[in-house]
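Notebook B, p. 112. Complex prediction, attempt 2.
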Amino acid sequence: MILIISSLVIMACLVAIVSGIWVIVGLVTELVNRSSTPDVSARDGNDFAHARQKSQDSSELV
Amino acid sequence: MAHTAMTVTLIAAYLAVLTLVALKARAAHQFKEFSLAGRSLTLPLVFGSLAATYVGPAFSIGFVGKGYATGLVFLIIGLAFSLQNILVGLFVAPRLRSLNDCHTLGDVIYQKYNRTCQILAGVISVGLCAGFAGVMIKAGGSILSDIFGIPFWAAVALVCGITTLYTTVGGLRASVITDAFQFTTFSILLPLIFLWLLLHMPGGLSHLAQVARDTTSRGWSMISGIEIVGLATAFLLGEMLIPPYANRALGSKSTRVSRNGFLLAGLFSGIWFVVMLAIGILASMKPDVVAEIAGLPALAREDQVLLVLVRMTLPFGFYALLLVVLLSVIMSSLDSLLNAGAVSFTQDIFRFIAPPASDHTALIQGRWATVTIAAAAAVSALRVPGIIEGLLFCYSIWAPAVLPALLLGLWMPQPKPLAGILSMLAGSLSGIFFTIVLERMQSNIPPILPALAIALLAYLVGHHVRPSQRTSEAGGQMK
């Protein structure tokens, strides 16, 4: 029991830290990708009907 | 004096970095961007944001206190929450993501029932988001008030102002990106603080494990069977698919990302509970900490364990870091609630009162809704009696009010609008009623159980009373 609890605690700490690192890598990747692409949404967001139609984009589903 | 200056500098630097990260997320220029982040959220962002949203004061400060008092008992109860996320990931999140043209749970309910049901779901969603946000603002305001020595109302204005600013401008993407940053902050710092304490503990890990075993054995004898059932039910259903979680399911890049995001968030919650409970157990091994906590008022003891432990046993820099961590825990939950409430208000309620002439108008409405909900939550924060009490009240209403109609609507071939309306009305009212009555009777029966039973009963009655109206409304289903 002592061994199980010890292993559980250490594993939990390590997994939590690794999860944090994985998310920050994903976040940096996202920010880098966004800063390297033009902000197209700023210039094509004026037509509500057009935007609502575009939201039916089932093609992006996997 | 030097300590205060260090804390203030550290927190100011953290808030500056957070603002920079939010600015990098860019302002939302379309309502779809504001409400769903363009349905392009990647797996690390969905997972980090979900975890950052559910890890609030209860899953950090609260669980450390429970570890201190009852060892690992709350790990078993907390696993009900992990199971909930895993079940949602396996069965519900992909189904939500596969629906087209849905910005909110209200939209989902509209597609399954009718417009009245959507408005009702919108009112419940906005009310609950404002209620949850009020609790978060109270927790954040208390911390900032302690740090800076400013009046509580000023601390509330500061927490609320910063969070509202980036949520209003950037919408869901800013919320998710800052959540991911905040998740990284606390998921790395809190385990590191624990490991540092463990390294300096005589007897180390094996001593901790022995104390954990003994405290857990004592803990089981302190809690009754009905309390365990009640708490496990509240953890299983209380936060299931609340609007911020549903928004992340709907805003995911694909059904696969939606499913895996919830699965990973569910697994992480189990890991997180172990770390928090272990910190609490470690606190119970330090005689000076135990003596300090014993001198506090009984009701405040468990909530103070983490702060007392770090303040009394670690160098001051760690205490300042902990305050940053707690602030990030609270703000990451708050921004998600504000955004979800604003999107629901715009999409489920206001659109039918004053239909927006353009996407830009809808976006402006969403921004104003964010500010309005934040202001309402800030006012309610000044009146919230306690953090845990406030959260339990919200849990007791949400599950019976929305879950039966939502889940049955997703799975049944022809759900009927009357069933949805009756279930949501009966669930909301019975949730409020049983919370008040059972608390006054000091009963151990969790209000969520009878309220859920009544909501299900109301759904069954509505389902069998009238024939389906879907056929007559088929033309109105597509927006």
